[in-house]
Design a protein that fits this description.
InterPro entries: Glyco_hydro_beta-prop_sf. This protein is an all-beta fold. The chain is built from 2 helices and 20 strands. The strands form 5 sheets. Strands 1-20-19-18 form a 4-stranded antiparallel β-sheet. A 4-stranded antiparallel β-sheet has the order 2-3-4-5. A 4-stranded antiparallel β-sheet has the order 6-7-8-9, with no helix packed on it.
């Protein structure tokens, strides 16, 4: 029972101004048959992140079917909360189209950045995403006083929306003092969220100092989450839950560590779980936080939940 890697699938060729490098934070949406559209965050020459997509045939031999010629979302206007970049959290199908939940950020002075969570919407996947509002839907607050990161949104039923997201537990100006865990918020409409600041997934070892970019799927009555773990090096961790609030770490059985060589030998990070043809798949980034693009893995055997 383990993830079987299918290799690197896509990385930008550097020819597009909005996609000079990186295909970070892959977020799959099923189109038809074996074709999935993977939204991702690229970087321009100023290192500002845009959102594009690539269509992939998800199979034992994945292949790229098509790619966006233009970004479907760009950084916000100067002075907006996302003027320095937009990082994909997830894309959710709704009754009115599709909702893109993302992390937007500003560059700082005493602290290198300030992050918040935004929402953009589109009636169809053939059009660009438009911001729900100029401001974020989740920002710093008494429950999250420092900074927030990539959201994973999951509908468990009508009027029962859940979001898992990253949040700093203490002020930080660098990796040495970062304490970034995963928290949870709830909503009745996917737009207005309530939270109490409780940590849903915390650190497994003293070496860990950041958990980010959660991705959640349902398996029977349980929930499975994968996320990026930052410690001595980046790897992908996992956890299971019966209620969405209390999680048990499963890193040894369902995590994904860097490989011995190649595009994901230095790190594995920014996972996205999804189901296809009754099998569990994992899209993820490798070296350089997505500089080498993203790849796929598929679960072999029974799930240990």
């Amino acid at each position: 029972m383990a993830w079987r890697r299918l290799g690197q699938i896509f990385a930008p060729d550097g020819k597009s101004p909005w996609a000079h490098s990186h295909a970070a934070l892959p977020a799959p949406v099923h189109l038809a048959g074996d074709i999935f559209r993977f939204f991702y965050s690229s970087r321009d020459t100023d290192r500002r992140s845009h959102v594009g997509w690539v269509d992939v045939e998800v199979s034992e031999r994945p292949r790229v079917d098509a790619a966006a010629h233009a970004a479907v979302m760009a950084p916000g206007e100067d002075g907006a909360f996302d003027d320095s970049g937009v990082g994909v959290g997830c894309v959710v199908k709704t009754a009115d189209g599709f909702s893109l939940y993302y992390m937007g950020w500003n560059l700082g002075i005493r602290s290198p950045w300030r992050n918040a969570i935004g929402l953009a919407q589109s009636p169809t996947l053939s059009r660009a995403f438009e911001r729900f509002s100029p401001g974020p839907i989740l920002d710093r607050s008494p429950e999250d006083p420092y900074t927030l990161s990539y959201p994973s949104v999951f509908r468990r039923g009508p009027g029962d929306w859940w979001m898992w997201y990253g949040s700093n537990l203490a002020p930080a100006v660098g990796n040495a003092d970062m304490q970034h865990a995963i928290k949870v918020a709830r909503s009745s409409d996917g737009v207005r969220w309530t939270r109490d600041g409780t940590v849903a997934v915390g650190f497994a070892t003293a070496a860990e100092y950041a958990l980010a970019r959660p991705s959640v799927v349902q398996i029977g009555e349980k929930l499975l989450m994968c996320f990026a773990c930052r410690g001595e090096r980046y790897s992908i961790g996992a956890a299971s839950s019966n209620d969405g609030l209390n999680w048990t770490r499963l890193d040894e059985t369902m995590g994904l560590s860097p490989s011995s060589s190649g595009w994901d030998s230095e790190m594995t990070c920014y996972p996205a779980l999804f189901w296809h043809r009754e099998r569990l798949w994992l899209a993820y980034n490798g070296n350089g936080y997505g500089a080498t693009g993203f790849g796929l893995a598929v679960w072999e055997g029974e799930l240990p939940l």
